[in-house]
Automatic annotation (TrEMBL):
Alphabetized Pfam families for the sequence: Trm112p
Gene3D superfamilies xrefs: 2.20.25.10
Superkingdom as given in the UniProt entry: Bacteria
GO cellular component assignments: cytosol
Phylogenetic classification of the source organism: Bacteria, Pseudomonadati, Pseudomonadota, Alphaproteobacteria, Rhodobacterales
Cited InterPro entries: Trm112-like (IPR005651)
The organism of origin for this protein: Aliiroseovarius sediminilitoris
Family indicated by similarity: Belongs to the UPF0434 family.
Protein name: UPF0434 protein SAMN05444851_0191
Length: 63
């Protein structure tokens, strides 16, 4: 059984989203399907085309 491709993320949505920790702009990483907050050093996953903006679900970014 073949998995269906993930729904496309609406890139216009990023303009309305900010980091829930720092209230700063997020960068969209299409390869990893994440929204990245450089200020908070967190990457928020996008699952099924929907950003998961929960700190508990975010990946910590190392330098």
């Amino acid at each position: 059984m073949t998995e269906a491709p993930a729904p496309e993320f609406d890139r216009r949505m990023i303009e309305a989203l900010v980091c829930p920790v720092t209230q700063t702009v997020l960068r969209y990483d299409a390869e990893k399907q994440e929204l990245v907050s450089k200020a908070a050093r967190l990457a928020f996953p996008i699952r099924g085309g929907i950003p998961v903006m929960l700190v508990d679900e975010a990946r910590k970014i190392e330098d």
